[in-house]
Amino acid sequence: MLIEVILGLFIVLFYFLVIKPLVPMIKLKLQFGNDCLMKYHFFGGELWQQLKEMKISKDLIKRPRDLYINHPYKIFVSNFLWKIKISVADPEYYKVMLHNHQYYSKVNNINHDNLIQKGLVFSMGEKWKSQRTVLSESFEYDQLKSRLPMINEVCLEKINQICGDNVLEFLELITGQVVIRSFFGNSAEGIKINKKQIQIEIADLLNDMGELRLKSKYFFIKRFFLGTKGWKFFPTKIEKELLQRVYEVRLTIEKLIQKRIVEIEIKMDENENDVKQRDPDFLDVLIKEYLKQKQKGVQKITIDDILQQFITLFFAGTDTTAVLSYHCLYFLALYPEIQQEIREEVMTVCKNEMVLDDKIKKLHKLTAFINEVLRVKNPALRLLLRNCDQTHQVKDLTIKKGWNVIVDYQFQCFLSKHFSNPENFDYKRWLEAEPIKENHQFVYLPFSAGPRNCIGQHMAQMEAKIILSQILRQFQININPNVDPRWTARFLYQLQPGNCVQLQKL
Ligand code: HEM
């Protein structure tokens, strides 16, 4: 009897760990030949290997990048247990995928349903479409222009208070504050959660939630088998503390939203024009939509949606822009002659304190420089992991329901067929008429493409330009000789530690 049980168990394990993943992998290999790389993992998966590499490697993408340059493949297929993961690196294929986004749901790496799941990054179908429509206007050029004085103010305010040597943290304070003011205006000023400034607690919470999966194998396995229900299954002390923090953050934000609803309702009763006169922040826009739907009796957008939209924009807009600015500072420090050229441009164009729209347009070198940093060190190295929800065809590739899908768009930036001397950091290539050779519209996509591209891309670029101009005007940027820089990954692909550069007052 025991032998039969062991044999039965062995057959089940053999099926799930070997046959189930290997059969489709081999089929793909046979179909695509050299255009398909295949790596089978009996247990574990790429993730464990990446975690190991994160600890020792100086640059996390060096190995995959070199592999791709030496052997440009269309797809890379691997597995985690029985789950297939397919990375698509060929622009002809991911172009189709980016347009047909409805087949994929994004895997929420915060691992919780009540923080960002309902916001613009993770929502799907009609819900996503209506959110994108409501928010689009707030990210259009004219609306952005009206926020530029605020971005300058935040920058100057933080620069005046700068203390300590963690430049990345300082940048995150600026970008976090910009998202909060864009969303709440001044109404979230001075608010604290768990004795920390609101933006610091939200940023810490999102990082702690995201890192839990990587730090705790127990949580990782629960997440794999139970999804977000894993939180309810024998939570550890750390998990309980995180849930309490989620509760506190949600409570504070909900109070801010409710307060604004009352204010808007009162103003609407008194005089409708009054509400229209002020430059609307994101919260005004969302609440007006909420109240409009309430009046019509078709409540699609809820308070919880608004709350999660705020955390979503914070999540999508804070670290991304801070890390981009940090990478820029690093390259400015690494190449002092470039720093000097760009500082001269900034000093010539921006004579007074505010860096506004008319000046930003004239910062050609700075724009080219940021483009180059995004080419070589884009914090959004690849798109978020997706789950295929419906079997479908991408050209001659069949992607099956349940597979994990990755769009690896950054590798094209390292190919000499698209960029001359791609290994050189050369911002001047972006001042040429045609910086990209054999231009395929899907070669250089720092903000993705298609209907689900980055809604905040113009805001991010303007913000980075303001931050860099303000810093260049006041500081010499130097490499910190006492630290060992590493290009690693948290949520984003990023330079660590946060004090790789030093700011020295001019
Ligand atoms: C350097 C800065 C930034 C980079 C590199 C970046 C990059 C990206 C990328 C690659 C995507 C597509 C993600 C995917 O489909 O998996 C994306 C989506 C998104 N980004 Fe950004 N982003 C940046 C800044 C911002 C900012 C400042 C905001 C807003 C405040 C923002 C809001 C969003 C949102 C809401 C989405 C989801 C859009 C949708 O699905 O419809 N991003 N971003």
TrEMBL record:
Short name of one Pfam family: p450
The keyword Chloroplast belongs to this UniProt entry's keyword annotation: no
Family matches, as PROSITE patterns: CYTOCHROME_P450
Keywords, sorted A to Z: Coiled coil, Heme, Iron, Membrane, Metal-binding, Monooxygenase, Oxidoreductase, Transmembrane, Transmembrane helix
Superkingdom of the organism of origin: Eukaryota
Gene Ontology MF term list: heme binding; iron ion binding; monooxygenase activity; oxidoreductase activity, acting on paired donors, with incorporation or reduction of molecular oxygen
Keyword set includes Oxidoreductase: yes
Residues annotated as transmembrane: 6-23
Record family assignment: Belongs to the cytochrome P450 family.
Name assigned to this protein: Cytochrome P450
Species for this entry: Paramecium sonneborni
